[in-house]
């Protein structure tokens, strides 16, 4: 093994010029695996809660683990909180707290959501802190309901081999029941700022160890081949999660052909206890059609936020299972009817042996409860018939990753990348931190999450460049102050009368080839709270962001908000009973934002900038008539179809929203960063009559394959001896390889053409025996 070159490619710390060692790579890998294991423990905790598995939930705590559940009378006080210690006592408390709303009794519901993780690992890697939003939606099947929402500020410890919860600290923000809705917890119905375990400075710290880092004395480094396997595993996990979350976005908009293209040719959809599709596109189409026809018509809501996705990969990294929670928020405005659909899922996916692209084999849903919005979930809902105990789809075991199987070979002849996967988790942390600071309107803090040349959209107005201006625009709007970084809210005792919760969930994160930059899309789900029960309803939108690594910290480069896709008048009347807004009202809103609220602070790019073309049409403050729910706002896509590579009419990429056209000098590539790939790389290969191999490599529009290496190989098992020919892709995206006649006497189907990627595009693959891809 050529150790040096392998290490360089595997994980060179992108922020130093030195070279990693097996020790520093092992350390970095362990840190990243730890962060993912901690997230899985907390997500597993929620998955068990949905089926009342109190003993297993309690077993996720360390021996001296503490559960501390804050009081609605005084959320911050430890002494008023309920405190229980040790797994046995915790199990008992969980059971008692649930009562009959345990998810076990027929018709009961015990949905625990925890998401938007912000995990900070200690320097020595043996403890961690994690902030999550939390929400419980409970019902006993006999009419009683309970709603709780707040923040977890938890602690974790690695004892023996596994990560465990050492402190589960719940801070309530709101509480109530279904019929009345929820209102603020806290003294006088007002909400305090929940203390943060991180700062804007620590939120984006790189997870990678410096190249000169050494391992603790009692631990041995992984071998380079073990590192190669484990890093591949992390890279594959990222791809699988992106695909599952993307499926959700396509379903939201009922883009049926695009959903079907995510499946294998014999893929299926199963709804436990209700129906299972025949294999293949027609069967999938028949199940999807039950949700309604293709595309959303005005007044139709088909929102399916996905929470807490855990990915489990098979040891050969060729198949994967994804388990989590999906909540259908369904509405028909003309009928003034809405529905809740709570489902757990356990989907399976496979890696295409031809192209290496992941595809869905089976979407597998298990219903918890479906309920009409008007009556709610308290009486067991309309499905399932409430006489049977729900059967959970199998839970995952949280064992540490397996060792490299003896017969495992990498899929591509290029090394996997640790910086790309750490970029995934670092970006999720910063994304979560932003959501939290936005909830608390901590202008200075969220401004400091941005890069020095970062820019953020102030809704209804435009983008402001630099943390100073971002903070100022926010302060002028919310604080009536003209000093940047002025933050009255930093006083921890400050009580607020309402909280505009910004849940940033269901991330799709596309990392650049060097891992220094990413494109991030998250769903925005607002579940805010105020003093009056039932007066805050749920709203939805979408973020389109990019992040970069700057001085060893992940920072926001671009932040763009597309809001709102849909709104609720309030909790009581829900999303199906919104009065259409008159154009006069939206014009008034915009004038208010642009005039009074920011008091003349000009954005660097106005939403009316002509070179944004149609991108901001219909959004508040953008050109043209404002499109507000129940009208259907356009859903833009910053990336291509993850299986076919196709671009839709609503594609806006590569490059951030204002960078394309309006501000080319804000492009990542104009600032020393790589533009992340927007989708898969297609490789087409053809044998010519005179015995040459013509290869064409295709990315998306404006994505060039040139400069990347193409190799003709006998499949990867043959190792280096299987390399038959190679060449460099030219500016037209193609290259012709010369091969000896002897080499071509191999069975064509065993000859593969690999594209190794360049500074933008990912690797791609096809078989020479394949006629047309
Ligand atoms: C709650 O409101 C009452 C009456 O307005 C006031 O006297 C009291 O100080 C308030 N308590 C807190 C903690 O703000
Ligand atoms: C690693 O190098 C940095 C400077 O590049 C130095 O500050 C640090 O002490 C070194 N750490 C170790 C463990 O040698
Ligand atoms: C690790 O070993 C080195 C050299 O033997 C020693 O100087 C150091 O104190 C040891 N560190 C720990 C934490 O045991
Ligand atoms: C789907 O097709 C693949 C390839 O032909 C086959 O290996 C697999 O067993 C099939 N799966 C199912 C569930 O039918
Ligand atoms: C499947 O669910 C639908 C409601 O979504 C219901 O109308 C139908 O009866 C169910 N079918 C079976 C076989 O339970
Ligand atoms: C929505 O409700 C209206 C009025 O009840 C009905 O005519 C229409 O078919 C419904 N649309 C869908 C897509 O269910
Ligand atoms: C769907 O999941 C259930 C377990 O919840 C399992 O028994 C079933 O085989 C799965 N269906 C498919 C097609 O994988
Ligand atoms: C906010 O600032 C403006 C201008 O500085 C001032 O006129 C106004 O009185 C202030 N409002 C409040 C509520 O402090
Ligand atoms: C919610 O909106 C409806 C319709 O406008 C109104 O009748 C009701 O009072 C509102 N409820 C709350 C709690 O604000
Ligand atoms: C909207 O504004 C126009 C002109 O300012 C006015 O004529 C019209 O009556 C307004 N419509 C409503 C519904 O207020
Ligand atoms: C991809 O786009 C092309 C051109 O718009 C279209 O002909 C083709 O059907 C699409 N492929 C898939 C799988 O959607
Ligand atoms: C490919 O051709 C070269 C030159 O003729 C030969 O040395 C090599 O063994 C061939 N490799 C295979 C796998 O056929």
Automatic annotation (TrEMBL):
Residues 30-168, 233-363 form the SnoaL-like domain. SUPFAM superfamilies: NTF2-like. Keywords: Signal. The keyword Phosphoprotein does not apply. The keyword Signal applies. Residues 1-18 form the signal peptide. It comes from the Eukaryota. InterPro entries: NTF2-like_dom_sf, SnoaL-like. It comes from Podospora fimiseda. This is SnoaL-like domain-containing protein.
């Amino acid at each position: 093994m050529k150790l040096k070159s392998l290490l360089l490619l595997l994980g060179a710390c992108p922020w130093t010029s030195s070279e990693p060692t097996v020790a520093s790579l092992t350390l970095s890998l362990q840190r990243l695996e730890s962060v993912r294991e901690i997230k899985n423990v907390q997500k597993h905790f929620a998955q068990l809660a949905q089926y009342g598995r109190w003993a297993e939930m309690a077993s996720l705590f360390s021996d001296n683990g503490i559960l501390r559940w804050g009081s609605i009378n005084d959320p911050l006080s430890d002494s008023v909180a309920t405190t229980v210690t040790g797994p046995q006592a915790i199990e008992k408390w969980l059971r008692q707290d649930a009562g009959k709303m345990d998810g076990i009794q027929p018709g009961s519901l015990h949905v625990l959501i925890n998401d938007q993780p912000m995990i900070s690992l200690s320097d020595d890697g043996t403890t961690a802190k994690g902030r999550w939003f939390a929400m419980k939606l409970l019902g006993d099947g006999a009419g009683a309901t309970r709603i709780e929402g707040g923040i977890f500020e938890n602690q974790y410890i690695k004892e023996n081999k596994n990560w465990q919860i050492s402190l589960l600290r719940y801070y309530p923000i709101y509480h109530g029941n279904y019929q009345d809705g929820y209102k603020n917890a806290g003294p006088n119905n007002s909400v305090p700022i929940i203390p943060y375990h991180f700062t804007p400075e620590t939120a984006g710290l790189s997870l990678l160890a410096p190249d000169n880092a050494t391992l603790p004395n009692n631990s041995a480094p992984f071998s380079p081949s073990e590192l190669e396997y484990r890093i591949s595993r992390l890279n594959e996990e990222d791809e699988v999660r992106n695909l599952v979350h993307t499926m959700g976005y396509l379903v939201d908009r009922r883009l049926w052909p695009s959903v079907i293209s995510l499946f294998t040719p014999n893929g299926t959809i199963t709804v436990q206890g209700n129906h299972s599709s025949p294999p293949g596109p027609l069967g999938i189409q028949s199940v999807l059609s039950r949700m309604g026809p293709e595309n959303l018509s005005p007044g139709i809501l088909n929102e399916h936020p996905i929470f807490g996705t855990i990915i489990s990969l098979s040891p050969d990294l060729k198949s994967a299972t994804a388990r989590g929670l999906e909540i259908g928020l369904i509405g028909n405005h003309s009928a003034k009817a809405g529905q809740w659909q709570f489902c757990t899922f356990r989907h399976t996916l496979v890696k295409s042996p031809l192209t290496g692209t992941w595809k869905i084999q089976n979407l597998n849903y298990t219903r918890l409860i479906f309920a009409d919005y008007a009556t709610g979930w308290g009486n067991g809902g309309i499905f399932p018939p409430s006489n049977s105990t729900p059967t959970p789809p199998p839970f995952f075991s949280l064992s540490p990753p397996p060792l490299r199987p003896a017969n495992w070979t990498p899929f591509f002849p290029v090394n996997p990348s640790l910086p790309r996967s750490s970029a995934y988790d670092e970006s999720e942390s910063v994304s979560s931190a932003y959501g939290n600071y936005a909830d608390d309107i901590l202008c200075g803090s969220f401004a400091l999450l941005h890069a020095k040349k970062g820019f953020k959209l102030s809704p209804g107005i435009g983008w402001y460049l630099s943390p100073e201006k971002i903070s100022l625009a926010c302060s002028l709007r919310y604080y009536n102050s003209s000093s940047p970084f002025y933050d009255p809210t930093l006083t921890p005792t400050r009580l607020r009368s309402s909280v505009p919760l910004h849940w940033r969930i269901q991330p799709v994160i596309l990392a650049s080839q060097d891992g220094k930059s990413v494109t991030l899309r998250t769903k925005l789900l607002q579940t805010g709270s105020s003093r009056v029960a039932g007066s805050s309803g749920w709203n939805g939108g979408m973020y389109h962001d990019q992040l970069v690594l700057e001085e060893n910290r992940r920072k926001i480069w671009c932040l763009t908000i597309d809001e709102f896709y849909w709104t609720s008048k309030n909790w009581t009347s829900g999303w199906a009973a919104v009065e259409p807004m008159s154009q006069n009202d939206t014009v008034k809103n915009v004038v208010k934002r642009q005039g009074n609220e920011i008091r003349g602070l000009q954005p660097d790019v106005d939403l009316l900038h002509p070179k944004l073309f149609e991108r901001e049409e219909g959004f508040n403050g953008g050109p043209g008539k404002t499109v507000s729910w129940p009208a259907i706002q356009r859903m833009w896509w910053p990336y291509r179809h993850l299986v076919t590579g196709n671009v839709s009419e609503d594609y806006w990429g590569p490059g951030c929203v204002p960078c394309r056209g309006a501000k080319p000098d804000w492009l990542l590539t104009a600032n020393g960063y790589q533009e992340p790939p927007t989708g898969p790389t297609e490789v087409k290969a053809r044998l010519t009559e005179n015995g040459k191999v013509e290869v064409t490599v295709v990315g998306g529009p404006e994505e060039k394959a040139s400069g990347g290496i193409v190799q003709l190989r006998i499949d990867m098992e043959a190792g280096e001896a299987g390399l038959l020919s190679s060449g460099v892709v030219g500016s037209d995206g193609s290259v012709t390889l010369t091969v000896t006649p002897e080499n071509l006497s191999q069975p064509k189907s065993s000859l593969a053409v690999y594209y190794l990627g360049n500074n933008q595009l990912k690797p791609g693959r096809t078989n020479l025996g394949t006629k047309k891809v």
